[in-house]
Specification:
The protein is an alpha/beta fold. The chain folds into two domains: about 240 residues, Rossmann fold (3-Layer(aba) Sandwich); about 35 residues, no CATH class. The protein contains nine helices and 13 strands. A six-stranded mixed sheet has the order 6-7-8-3-9-10, sandwiched between helices. A four-stranded antiparallel sheet has the order 2-1-4-5, covered by helices on one side. Helix 4 crosses helix 5.
């Protein structure tokens, strides 16, 4: 379990995160939400151990993240950031193999090669294996990088002791690939992995999140299940716009529709068949 206690982080004199406390449990997909500048990516970096809090703590099973050696962390957690430019040319298979680097010293084993192949197949990028990474579209690059973090955490049977941190993993993907990416993250969570994802799409968050941490101006506005967090007044506070919440008979998560003040058509339906 990742436990956040009274977390405070600043850059220069400017506080970025203030007094945040939350528990992020294994077996759940936790989504970080909030408007631009709310502190989502900064919080993810603190959870990853990349940024050290000025006050408060982030602990993994009772032990401070900052006390883990880099090699130890690399074996237990995988991180997908927003920026992943490579200064040297690499083929996509080589990029995915980078996820296995913590698991071998010099030469990848047959098992490492198989896990790389499996991760690429699951993210539907096996046909890109010999392509140069820098020649891919943004969405293709995201899928290759997602395959890299899967390869780092695999085999699936061992993920219950690990955690995955994803910063806007679907931002350049089409709708099919977004579903593929988040279904895979959900599968890892259901296998016992601790999964934290930064998203901007509220409906994707509502569909996949087991827990939502809603941030505003570096503070935790609300934490809870989708039904608790996705309330019109909370979304208004966090994002500054109105939404209508709809529940469809065929799904078990809320659907959010924006309501534009002054428009000729207003959304009134609370439930659709």
């Amino acid at each position: 379990m990742l436990e956040i206690q009274k977390l405070y982080y600043k850059i220069g004199p400017q506080p970025i995160l203030e007094d945040i406390s939350a528990c992020i449990r294994p077996g759940q997909l936790t989504v970080l939400l909030g408007a631009n500048g709310a502190g989502k990516s900064t919080l993810l970096k603190v959870l990853a151990g990349e940024n050290k809090p000025f006050r408060g703590s982030v602990t993994l099973k009772g032990r401070a993240i900052s006390s883990h050696r880099p090699q130890e962390l690399a074996l237990r957690r995988a991180v997908l950031t927003q920026q992943y430019s490579l200064s040297l040319p690499f083929r996509c298979r080589e990029v995915v193999m980078m996820g296995r680097y913590p698991h071998f010293k010099q030469t990848p084993s047959c098992s490492d090669q198989e896990l790389v192949r499996l991760a690429m197949e699951e993210m539907m990028v096996e046909q890109l294996a010999d392509r140069w990474f820098h020649t891919l579209s943004g969405g293709e690059q995201q899928r290759v990088q997602m395959a890299r973090v899967l390869a780092q955490l695999y085999p699936l049977a061992s993920v219950a002791t690990k955690f995955l941190l994803l910063d806007e993993p679907t931002s350049s993907m089409d709708c099919l690939q977004q579903q593929l990416c988040l279904r895979k993250a959900k599968e890892l969570a259901q296998a016992g992995c601790t999964v934290v994802v930064v998203l901007h799409d509220l409906n994707l968050a509502a569909q996949y999140a087991d827990q939502v941490l809603l941030l505003k101006n570096g503070k935790l506005l609300k934490a809870g299940a989708s039904a608790e967090v996705f309330q019109p007044d909370l979304i208004r506070q966090a994002y500054g716009y109105e939404v209508e919440i709809i529940y469809h008979n065929g799904v078990d998560f809320p659907i959010l529709l924006p309501v534009f003040t002054g428009s000729k058509q207003s959304v009134n339906a609370k439930k659709i068949a």
